[in-house]
Write a structure and sequence with these properties.
- This protein has helices at 11-15, 30-41, 62-70, 73-79, 103-120, 133-139, 165-172, 180-183, and strands at 52-58, 84-91, 124-128, 146-155.
- It is α+β, with helices and mostly antiparallel strands.
- Residues 13-156 form the Nitroreductase domain.
- Belongs to the nitroreductase family.
Length: 190
Amino acid sequence: MRAETSQPVHEIIATRRSPRSLNPTVAVTDQDLIAILEAGRWAPSAFNGQPWRFFVARNGDDLFAKTLSTLAPFNQSWAKNSAVLITVAAKTTKDDGSIHADYQYDCGLAVSQMVFEIHHRGFVAHQMTGFDRTQSAEVLEMPTDLTPVVVVAIGKQDAPEKLEGPAAERELAPRVRKELSEIVIAGLPK
């Protein structure tokens, strides 16, 4: 379903969704996965600090099971069918040891660029903050200078009818956003 935008925007933005119905038989090739990670690598960051770190887990490997175990039960119920789960963690201090106050913003930019590349390659992405960060750091054996930020499920969209209950309801809900007049505080062109 295409978003109803007030002005035309790039097709990837207009058609991007975060579905939960994923086809468990479709894999992401090495070439596609590397391109997705490259898109994140080339995101802008404050002072070119690049605080993001990616923990990549493919369905069927041990890291996938560990990553899946950190998700909230609702997210586990559908994310188990994704081809890849990427936990994005951040280095919260700069190279000089000072606090990196903008690490979440920078990680968001990296994930955004990965999401656009994911959709460009015919896959879908669903970003999740519903996971246990402490458990994630433990099971993924993260260095102590990293903190988990988000988990991104990647896969091929499947039929929404394969979901049940709240997941099915969310899958079939219309795609809506607040109007620009609600989010632009000053300077909205007429």
